[in-house]
Amino acid sequence: MHEHFLASEYPPCPPERAGFHIIPAPLERSVSYGGGAARGPAAILAASQQLEAWESGLAPGETGFYTAPPVDCAGPIADVLERIAQATTRALACGAVPVLLGGEHTVSLGALRALAAQARQRGEPLGVVQFDAHADLRQSYEGDPYSHACVMYRAAADLGLPLLQFAVRDFSREEAAARERLGVAHYDARFLARVGLPEQPLPEGFPHNIYITFDLDGLDSSLMPATGTPSPGGLNWREAQFILERCVAGRRVAGLDVVELAPIAGLHHADFTAAKLTHLLMGLAGAANTTEKQSAEAHA
């Protein structure tokens, strides 16, 4: 039996009645510095048992949490991404918000493929909001186009998804050029520290439906040392929450992920922070989606 997210407060919900499907994806195949990302999903689920039922006045568990069995991450990466896409599609078929727990950042591509397919079918564009120390816009890294360093390039170039990046502070000349070529909007860590965030950070014309991908190294390394490449100069907790609140305002959150936790034995605060962030993201997504639904019904 696998552990269920926040089962200490909310009994596991049947998938067809859950507001959120938590999908563990313990992939670790292309990490290029510190290891341990395969243990991240299980650590988040274990730490979630120490959370309270409410987070920042929000209680997403009241809509039901269903934690799916961990995705089998053995074998060719094409097969792994297809399994992640299938788990995401099952969540969407239930009317739930898919919540992917990585594993290395490559897992996001599987979820995005499923969501992009749904967006095309419905004629509703999807945009990606990324929190990360790295741009992840390399066409290939160490000979691998499906490296964790390439995931946002695959999303923007291959899937054609608009992309907005926050807190990036480590990237290459190649990635800077890719930003220009692909029209990637960004608020890098240096800009946020010196200038701050505008009232409306999403660019004009950015899709109404968004996917939030949160690489934990987007947080400052003093807060989140348990990741493959902890980097100084990142976001603190309240900064991340503030930006997230502004990004979801007036939007619908179609899906989200939290990736790249590499647990350190005995360092409980990092695992707990990752679980708390996951809970916060679900709370903000649930509140935004409820507001969006009520607004749509009022204008129907």
TrEMBL record:
It comes from the Bacteria. The keyword Hydrolase applies. Its cofactor is Mn(2+). GO terms for biological process: putrescine biosynthetic process from arginine, via agmatine. One of its GO terms (molecular function) is agmatinase activity. Binds 2 manganese ions per subunit. The keyword S-adenosyl-L-methionine does not apply. It holds the Pfam family Arginase. Mn(2+) binds at H105, D132, H134, D136, D215, D217. Keywords: Hydrolase, Manganese, Metal-binding. Belongs to the arginase family. This is Agmatinase. It comes from Desulfovibrio legallii. The lineage of its organism: Bacteria, Pseudomonadati, Thermodesulfobacteriota, Desulfovibrionia, Desulfovibrionales.
